[in-house]
Design a protein that fits this description.
This protein is α/β, with parallel strands linked by helices. Helix content is 41%, strand content 19%. The longest helix has 29 residues. The structure holds 1,4-dihydronicotinamide adenine dinucleotide and magnesium ion.
Length: 793
């Protein structure tokens, strides 16, 4: 007879399969074939070409699913547009009731959904049952609440319209919930395309929508592959695209939507650091690693895939990790005691296998657990690679499998540098018993989510999303809801000057060489007046065509110099908000003191009446005071997530922002954009109105006398579209606002695809009214980092 002691040591136990008859019965009832769900009905599955959906754990076919064409997308968008008319008019309370009903139905069918998800995706039943499906229900409940509160909590905002949503295969139903729940809560309707590998739970969800009495057309599901997704992205009736998936496809979508005015949120890849300091609880960290990289076969965008460990404890930690890896069971996903299931597809398995081989060739030591891996199906053993260089392929590329790469560091500074040495910025996990150090490192890491002594925690109340090439926009929480809302903007008070400005937009051809007596206003770069690199200036004329001055004709070199100066002024973001407020007050005071000069400048340049010019200057002064007042009040939040955690939603500046100011309201427009960006802690490279730049160039005198550190604000005049392009494609510029009116949205959208910077094409608005100032500007000048801090032992 076996002794308990031996059993505990070997931890052997027999198979514990979860029943799946209800799922096979459901597939049979559908005769293994599914059409799209459009306008509350399933289309005839035989009407379309279809593709096969398989269970990756055994390779067996589960169903055939329709391959969506552009015509299918068009039907779905049309249905969604029709439904939008009534759905968006329902009260928040009525929409909330629909979302509650969906949440309840999900809970009623939780076991069914968990089994179906496991069969379709290959992930362990333990995870679908305990994590995916409960979180799905939680998302609908949470957003039912937001629907209820929408009118009071988001005044001045309305739904966007029809939302196209494209999701990946790693958390099929959970990603659906992350997308559909906020969209519906905010009053939008949706067309969702699930991943080709895992469409089944989305189709089951469609049935739930019907059962729960959701009006037809509010949710439409069109299945298909990449081309179906591309057709959705391209459809003119779609007002917003939300995408989760690879960074490559994210870029394609970014460029396909450029200039279309479609709202866009991208949740892309990652190569997230998992940092272990020498004072960490090592056993806790090892369990953390299991959840970080061996959860969901490592097919997690925020997986802790780069282990950074402090040198002194590295070997000790690796030994513990290897021992723990030996206890991970790889096997049938439907078995309740399986830790690691099947990788989603043969294609993904090949990718993982090839990357591990590359790692080996590049000199890494590869350790894999000796446990058996099933002979059929797409399984991959948990893997640890040590001796990896920061520049190795496996340290740089997202592997998206159960593969951990490890590197060492000596000091916290080195840990931060290594952590940030990636083009991504989705998540990070920090392990240390020293709270001061943990929070310090959390603040310095460029990532949208940071877990302290924890990892892979998710909740509907917390925002989730990336910095840098991990995408932009947040999902979850208050911050996520904004992605599905548009703000109402007033009509521009001043006449649209776009056309006139276009004619006047300076070019090299119209440039005049600066003569000996220099009447040209200069650029302002790095805290100093600077001559334009071109050596040319251009004539600034008043409405009757009379030349009223010369402005420097800036070029790409001037923009680059300004960005370089901004890069050196990093301390601005770290200054206290109180300090920034003081400086903005100083600016406001100095502007007041010179109000008359600015009035005269405006009158001469724009032909404004005395009264209008005085109004504009007065409004600019008030606006500066407004943001000075707000600088230390744009608070973050503590989200109500899981118990025994504080989840801090911190407003962080982007870093360096490019701002293209409007052609109209040459002083007020400039101040209305530059001040909130500075207040939020950004450094700014501003391009003022091309046609009327002189009020902004005069502004350097104010900046010079207001203790603004060098490089924090640079002002480059010239041809706005030309300068815009350089700003947009500059990798060190992290966000761009285009309010210029002459600069095409398509130009800046396209040029900024490289580093995937968020772009706000703000359009014309009334700068004098409430739409010209407020939280919206501060919100757009910040990105939210959610830091999860546990408490208790
Ligand atoms: P993918 O980005 O190609 O697929 C994600 C979704 O986008 C699917 O629904 C797909 O049909 C759709 N899609 C593909 N091409 C499209 C296009 N041109 N226009 C519109 N939609 C399009 O990702 P894939 O090929 O499945 O996986 C490749 C790699 O991407 C993975 O190895 C992993 O590194 C990464 N990935 C990251 C995910 C994340 O959660 N951030 C999720 C899935 C993959
Ligand atoms: Mg693909």
């Amino acid at each position: 007879m076996a002794h308990i002691k031996d059993i505990l040591k070997s931890m052997e136990y027999g198979p514990a399969p979860e029943a799946n008859e209800h799922v096979t019965a459901w597939l049979d009832a559908h005769k293994g074939a599914f059409g799209h769900f459009i306008d509350g009905k399933f289309t005839d599955p035989s009407a379309n070409k279809s593709f096969k959906v398989t269970n990756p754990a055994d390779g067996k076919t589960l169903a055939h699913v329709a391959r969506g064409t552009a015509a299918d997308i068009d039907h779905a968008v049309t249905a969604a547009a029709r439904a939008f008319k009534s759905w968006s008019k329902l009260s928040g309370h009525e929409r909330a009731r629909h979302l509650y009903a969906i949440a309840r139905h999900i809970q009623k069918r939780d076991r069914f959904l968990a089994v179906l998800e496991t069969m379709d995706n290959g992930k362990p039943i333990r995870e679908t049952r305990d994590i995916d499906i409960p979180l799905v229900a939680r998302h609908f409940y949470h957003h039912a609440g937001w629907a209820e509160l929408l009118e009071s909590e988001f005044p001045g905002h309305g739904p966007v319209g029809v939302c196209g949503q494209i999701i990946p295969w790693n958390f099929p139903l959970l990603m659906l919930a992350w997308k559909i729940a906020p969209a519906l809560a905010a009053g939008n309707t949706v067309v969702l395309k699930p991943a080709e590998q895992t469409p089944l739970t989305a189709l089951a969800f469609a049935e739930i929508c019907r059962e729960a009495g959701l009006p037809a057309g509010v949710v439409n599901i069109v299945t298909g592959e990449g081309d179906t997704g591309a057709a959705l992205v391209a459809h003119e009736g779609v007002a917003k695209i939300a995408f989760t998936g690879s960074t490559d496809v994210g870029r394609v979508i970014r460029s396909a939507t450029a200039g279309s005015g479609k709202k866009l949120s991208l949740e892309l890849g990652g190569k997230s650091p998992f940092i272990v300091f020498d004072d960490a609880d090592l056993d806790g960290a090892v369990e953390g690693l299991v959840d970080a990289i061996w959860f969901n076969q490592g097919e997690v965008c925020c997986a802790g895939s780069r282990l950074l460990v402090q040198e002194g404890i590295a070997e000790k930690l690796y030994a513990k990790v290897r021992a723990r890896m030996e206890t991970l069971r790889v096997g049938s996903p439907l078995d309740k005691s399986t830790d690691i299931g099947a990788v989603v597809s043969a294609e993904q398995l090949d990718r993982i296998t090839a990357l591990v081989e590359t790692g080996r060739k590049e000199g890494a030591q590869v350790f894999q657990s000796s446990n058996a891996v099933p002979g059929t199906g797409t399984f991959f053993a948990p893997t640890l690679m040590t001796g990896v260089e920061p520049s190795s392929t496996v340290a740089v590329v997202e592997i998206f499998g159960p593969v951990l790469v490890a590197m060492t560091f000596r000091t916290p500074d080195e840990a931060v540098a290594l952590a940030n040495n990636t083009r991504y910025g989705l998540a990070a996990s920090i392990w240390s018993e020293n709270i001061n150090r943990s929070l310090d490192v959390a603040a310095r890491i460029k990532a949208g989510v940071v877990w302290i002594n924890a990892t892979n925690l998710f909740d509907a109340a917390a925002g989730f999303g990336g910095y840098r090439e991990s995408g932009f926009g947040r999902e979850g929480g208050r911050e996520g809801l904004y992605e599905y809302l548009v703000e109402e903007t007033g009509k521009a008070k001043t006449k649209a000057v776009a056309k006139a400005a276009l004619l006047a937009a300076p070019s090299q051809a119209a440039a005049v060489a600066t003569d000996g007596v220099d009447r040209t206003t200069k650029l302002y770069v790095g805290g100093k007046q600077a001559r334009p690199d071109s050596g040319y200036s251009y004539a600034v004329t008043n409405p009757s065509g009379k030349q009223v001055g010369l402005a420097g004709l800036g070029n790409r070199k001037d923009i680059r110099n300004a960005v370089e100066a901004a890069a050196k002024a990093e301390s601005w973001g770290a200054a206290t908000a109180h300090n920034r407020a003081q400086i903005l007050y100083y600016i406001a005071e100095n502007l007041s003191a010179r109000a008359e000069e600015f009035e005269a400048r405006l009158r001469m340049m724009t032909g404004a009446s005395k009264r209008d010019a005085a109004d504009e200057v007065a409004a600019a002064i008030r606006r500066t005071f407004f943001y000075a007042g707000f600088a230390d009040k744009h608070d973050g939040a503590v989200h109500s997530t899981k118990s025994r955690h504080v989840t801090l939603a911190m407003n962080e500046p982007f870093g360096i922002m490019g701002i293209l100011c409007p052609e109209d309201a040459p002083l007020l427009g400039f101040v209305s954009l530059v001040m909130p960006a500075l207040a939020a802690g950004n450094r700014v490279v501003a391009v003022p109105s091309s046609s009327h730049p002189l009020a902004a160039t005069d502004f350097y005198q104010i900046v010079d006398t207001s203790d603004v550190p060098a490089g924090v604000l640079s002002i480059v005049t010239g041809n706005a579209p030309e300068l815009a392009k350089t700003l947009a494609d500059h990798d060190e510029v992290s966000a761009l606002w285009n309010f210029n009116g002459v600069v095409e949205a398509a130009l800046v959208d396209k040029a900024s695809t490289g580093n995937l910077k968020p772009v706000w094409n703000g359009g014309a608005r009334d700068w004098y009214a409430a739409t010209g100032q407020g939280r919206e500007f501060l919100r757009r000048a910040t990105q939210i980092k959610n830091i999860w801090v546990p408490y208790g032992e």
